[in-house]
UniProtKB/TrEMBL annotation:
TM regions (residue ranges): 12-31
UniProt-recorded name of the protein: Uncharacterized protein
Originating species: Forsythia ovata
Database matches in Gene3D superfamilies: 3.90.550.50
Stored Pfam families: DUF604 (PF04646)
Keywords: Membrane, Transmembrane, Transmembrane helix
Length: 482
C-alpha cells in the first residue's frame, strides 16, 4: 500500500499528512540538536551517564585541544585492572604482583580459573581481590577455553567495576606494572575517545606469528572507557566470530578492529619476549616512561647479586621515589679522561673508556637472546650492539645499589661495580683505565620529569679515588651529546 493510495480522491489528505510529517520532522531535528547526547542504550547505565555528561562538555573544547577533554586530571582512581591468571601459578607469582599492587588503592581483580586452595587461604590482603572466571565451557561447547577465558576477562572486569572508569588495564598474573607512569601516560590521552594502547613484542617473529597490530597481553594493554564498554557489549559475539583463533591477544585485537579501533603502540610496555640477561636492554631503554614488564620467570634476575623476587623489590625502591626517570638513559662525557658515562636511572651505570655519541649508546648491547629459535637476523624490533671484549668498546658495569634524599632535597642514587672488567685500558683514547672506580653516585632533581621531548643531560662533577659523581640537569639549548 503506502504512497500508492495517494490518488486524486485522497490527494488533499495526503498533502496535509505530508506537511504534518515535515513539521514533525523539523521539530524532531531541532530537539535532537538540543540534546545531542541522548543515550542510545541503558545497558551499563551508571557508566553511560558519566560518559555522556563529559561528552557534552568536551564537544566544544575538543575543537580547541584535540587530546584533552575538559575534565579532572586522570589519576589512579580512574583505572581498573583486570589480571587473568591460574590458581596453580599464583602460588609463586603472587609476589610479583604484590610488588606493585597498592592494596585498597589500586582498583581491579585477579581472575582465577578455580577457587584458590589451602596455601592461598586466607587470601592475602596485599594481593588484588580475586574472582573465579565465568564458566565458558557450555557457551563455547568445548572444554579448553583458556584463550577465551582471558578475553572474556575484559568483559568481567568491566562488569564488576566500571563506575568512574576511564581506563581498563588488562594484564597477566606475572605482569609488573609501574603505576605512576601508567597514570601519567594515560592522563595525556582523552579517555572519552576510543583508544587501544598496547605493547608490541620485542621479538620480530612473535609479532609476525601473532600480529604486528596487537597489544601483547603480558605487557598489558589499556582500553579507554568507551572502547572497553563497546568490547564488553560485543564479547559473546566476538568470541563466536573468532572461535577459530587460538590466541587470546590476537582475538582481542580482531574484536577491537571490528569496533573500528586500531592499536597505538606504547614503547614503555614490555612483553619481554627475550631470554637470559636483559641488562643490555634495560640499560638503553627507549626514551619513554617504563610502564610494564613481563616474563620475569624466565629471565635471569635483573640484578646479578639478587634473586628474582629481591630484584623486583630492589627496582621498586627506585620506582617508588621517581618512576619518571626509572631506566631512562642519561649520557655525559668526562673529557679529562675520554670517558663516556651512560646512566639508566635506578638500574645501572656504564663507563666506556672513549667518547661515544648518544646515537650509539642508545642501542642496547645484546646481552639477551631471542624468545625462540630465530633462523637469522633481524631478530628484534630495535637495533642492537654486539657484546665485545675490546677495551675501547666494553663498558665497566655498575648496578643500582641505594637511593636516598639529600639535605638539599635532591635524590642520590648510587651504583656499585658488578665485577672487574678484566681487560687493559683503551689505548687509542689515551689509556685511561676506569678499573679503579667502584662506585658511581648520581644526583637528580626530586621533581618528576613528565615532558619527554628531550632527554636529560648530566655532568661528571668529580672523579675522586674510587668514586665518580654525576649530576643530572636539563640539556642546554644547543647542547650536543657526543
Ligand atoms: C571546563 O568546564 C567548566 C564548566 O564545567 C568551565 O567553567 C571551564 O571554563 C572549562 N574549562 C575549559 C578549559 O574549557
Ligand atoms: C582523582 O580524581 C577524582 C576526580 O575525578 C578526585 O575526586 C579524587 O580525589 C582524585 N584522587 C586522587 C588520589 O587524587
Ligand atoms: C583494606 O580495607 C579493608 C576493609 O576496608 C581493611 O580491612 C584492610 O585492613 C585494608 N588493607 C590495607 C592493607 O590497608
Ligand atoms: C682523547 O682521545 C683522543 C683520540 O680519540 C686523543 O687524541 C686525545 O689525546 C685523548 N685525550 C686525552 C685527555 O687523553
Ligand atoms: C697504559 O697504561 C698501563 C698502566 O696504566 C701501562 O702499563 C701501559 O704501558 C700503558 N700503555 C700505553 C700504550 O701507554
Amino acid at each position: 500500500m503506502g504512497s500508492s493510495n495517494c490518488n486524486l480522491d485522497v490527494g488533499s489528505i495526503c498533502r496535509t499528512l505530508l506537511i504534518f510529517c515535515m513539521v514533525l520532522y523539523f521539530v524532531f531535528i531541532a530537539l535532537s540538536n538540543q540534546y545531542p547526547n541522548c543515550p542510545a542504550s541503558e545497558f551499563f547505565s551508571p557508566f553511560w551517564k558519566i560518559s555522556s555528561a563529559t561528552n557534552s562538555i568536551s564537544i566544544s573544547s575538543s575543537v580547541l585541544s584535540p587530546t584533552i577533554s575538559n575534565d579532572s586530571k586522570t589519576n589512579l582512581s580512574h583505572l581498573v585492572f583486570g589480571l587473568v591468571g591460574s590458581e596453580k601459578a599464583w602460588h609463586h607469582r603472587k609476589a610479583y604482583i604484590e610488588s606493585w599492587w597498592r592494596p585498597n588503592i589500586t582498583r581491579g581483580f585477579l581472575f582465577l580459573d578455580k577457587e584458590p586452595t589451602a596455601g592461598l587461604i586466607p587470601w592475602s590482603g596485599a594481593s588484588p581481590p580475586y574472582k573465579v572466571s565465568d564458566d565458558l565451557t557450555k557457551f563455547l561447547k568445548k572444554t579448553d577455553v583458556t584463550a577465551q577465558r582471558i578475553i572474556h576477562g575484559i568483559m568481567e572486569a568491566f562488569r564488576e567495576d566500571h563506575e568512574n572508569l576511564r581506563w581498563l588495564v588488562m594484564g597477566d598474573d606475572d605482569s609488573i606494572f609501574f603505576l605512576d607512569n601508567i597514570v601519567d601516560v594515560l592522563a595525556k590521552f582523552d579517555h572519552t575517545k576510543y583508544y587501544y594502547l598496547g605493547g608490541q613484542s620485542e621479538f620480530i617473529l612473535s609479532n609476525h606469528w601473532f600480529s604486528f597490530s596487537q597489544g601483547f597481553g603480558g605487557a598489558g594493554f589499556m582500553l579507554s572507557a568507551p572502547l572497553a564498554r563497546a568490547l564488553a557489549k560485543d564479547m559473546e559475539n566476538c568470541l563466536k566470530r573468532y572461535a577459530h583463533l587460538k590466541a587470546a591477544d590476537l582475538t582481542t585485537k580482531s574484536c577491537i578492529a571490528d569496533i573500528g579501533v586500531s592499536l597505538s603502540p606504547l614503547k614503555g610496555l614490555h612483553q619481554i619476549d627475550l631470554r637470559g640477561d636483559i641488562s643490555g636492554f634495560l640499560s638503553s631503554h627507549p626514551k619513554s616512561p617504563i610502564l610494564s614488564f613481563h616474563h620475569y620467570d624466565v629471565l635471569e634476575p635483573l640484578f646479578p647479586s639478587k634473586d628474582r623476587f629481591e630484584s623486583a623489590r630492589h627496582l621498586m625502591k627506585a620506582a617508588n621515589v621517581d618512576q619518571s626517570r626509572l631506566v631512562q638513559q642519561t649520557i655525559c662525557h668526562h673529557r679529562d679522561k675520554n670517558w663516556s658515562f651512560s646512566i639508566s636511572w635506578g638500574y645501572s651505570a656504564h663507563i666506556y673508556e672513549r667518547i661515544m655519541p648518544r646515537s650509539y649508546l642508545q642501542k642496547p648491547i645484546e646481552t639477551f637472546t631471542t624468545w625462540t629459535h630465530s633462523p637469522h637476523p633481524p631478530n628484534y624490533m630495535f637495533n642492537t650492539r654486539g657484546r665485545s671484549n675490546d677495551p675501547c668498546e666494553a663498558p665497566h658495569i655498575f648496578f643500582f645499589e641505594s637511593i636516598e634524599k639529600t639535605s638539599r632535597n635532591e635524590v642520590l642514587t648510587s651504583y656499585s661495580r658488578a665485577s672487574p672488567r678484566g681487560s687493559p685500558a683503551c689505548a687509542s683514547s689515551g689509556n685511561h683505565s676506569a678499573d679503579f672506580i667502584s662506585k658511581i653516585e648520581v644526583i637528580s632533581p626530586s621533581t618528576k620529569r613528565i615532558e619527554m621531548d628531550r632527554c636529560e643531560c648530566c655532568d661528571v662533577v668529580r672523579v675522586d679515588g674510587m668514586k665518580a659523581e654525576v649530576n643530572f640537569r636539563e640539556c642546554m639549548m644547543d647542547e650536543i651529546i657526543a
